[in-house]
Structure formats: structure tokens, C-alpha cells
Design a protein that fits this description.
This protein is mostly beta strands. The protein is built from 1 helix and 10 strands, in the order H-E-E-E-E-E-E-E-E-E-E.
Length: 177
Amino acid sequence: MKAIPTPYRRLRLVPLAVGAILSTSCSTSRSWHCNAPTGTYSDQHFDVPETTTELSGEIVFNKTYGTERWPPFAKVGLTDRDADASDCHCDGIEATRYTNYPYLIEVALTANGKRTILGSVPYDKPVTFKLSYDRLGAVKLEVRTGVATSVWPNPKHNRLTLDCSSADVDFRSVEVK
């Protein structure tokens, strides 16, 4: 069998390498385990492209430690890493377990510092979600068959935030597109 001359081998490999770079730059996936005892808070931040238009994944509550004063919650959303911290709101999904409804997780869309309640899911099931963002500031949350929409006044978003309080939570395969 004849060996392929070196210049031809390089030409054959270049298109494959470019294809691999293009396919991995379109989306990324993050998973994180958050464990924050009652009244405490933990978070992770990841820089994302400003062209991000979608987040999807699962929030799984393993255990909650909260009280009526400190209800356990988990959040996933986008924000502007350059915004003034006092004006910064993470726009995305918030899942909260209240003591008066121990078998349910309330799901809400958070945008512009406001919560739009979408509904609830059973405590023992993952909260599977999809968030869509557009360049004009519209935010849409889809969970199961429910949909909530809102407007984000600052459509610049370049940081993914995952956080929890008073709970042991897994954020599974949060995909950024």
C-alpha cells in the first residue's frame, strides 16, 4: 500500500479539524452540584457568548433544608457580567419549594426583577426547562406544557448563573446555545 504524500495528508485533515471546531463552538453543556444548608446560598458563573439564544436542562432537588423563612430554591439564568451589581437581575427560571406545599416545586420565570409563576411540578421529578432569549429582550420559559413570557430591559446577556439556597440541587446538562 502506498503512503499518501505529506501535502495531501494535510489537506485532508484540515477540513476535518475545521468541522470539529465549528461543531463544538455552537453549544456547550454545564452540570453542577449545589449544596447550601438552611439560610445559605451558593452560585456558579460561566461566561457565555452574547449571541446565546437558548438555555435548556434539568433542575433536580435531592434534599431541601429550608424553612418558611428560608424557602429552598434553585435558579438558572443569564445576566450581564458588566452590569452594576445593585441593578443586576438573573433572567431565567426559578424553582422554589415552599413548606406549605412539600410535594411540589413552584416554577417561575424571572425577568427584570419580577417573578411570573408558571405552575408547579412534583417534588420527586426533575424540573425540565427551556429558556429562549431574543436580541430585543423577550424571554420565554417552557416547562412541560406551560409557557411564560416577559421582557428583559437589557438584552445584553453574557454570563450563565446557576445558584441555589437552602437545598441540595443538581443542575443537569444545562445546554447553552
